[in-house]
């Protein structure tokens, strides 16, 4: 119903598409699609159209999934005038990237490297030029690799942290309640995810004593 309303709002207008792919919690590859267009009031709007399962992240597979989504909603590739996604080779590759495959069908389509993605890469690059910051995240990565490389060590860490939480609850250092003190895991940071570095540090701070043990 929501999708039909979005398609009706677009009508026969030109539109752009924004795409990103990643694995979900079950490690299945997924492609998220957002449509961007100008509505009848002249406002630029962005509408989330859905998540498409893809067999892999090759450009051909992503193009096939995009074609399937377009066909399902009656969208024409000829009305596509812009696309935005990250700078990975499967997305913007000049020979076989998704950008190139779409251009073969529609020469009027214009590609823009996602500005948020560019900014994130720039921030990470600048931060790594600061020696102390770079040393911190290098150490953090080593700690996570040491723990995560062994399922035995990982199980020991979870066991020690569970004991630490129980003791803290008994001592009144932690509050108890529904949804609180859930089991957590060490999070890896990624250069293309805004909050991943923050999440990594929070998980280490929360489990610090158990990690030291």
From TrEMBL:
Entry-linked Pfam families: DUF4371 (PF14291)
Residues in DUF4371 domain copies: 1-97
Highest taxon above the source species: Eukaryota
PANTHER family: GENERAL TRANSCRIPTION FACTOR 2-RELATED ZINC FINGER PROTEIN, ZINC FINGER, MYM DOMAIN CONTAINING 1
Name this protein carries in UniProt: DUF4371 domain-containing protein
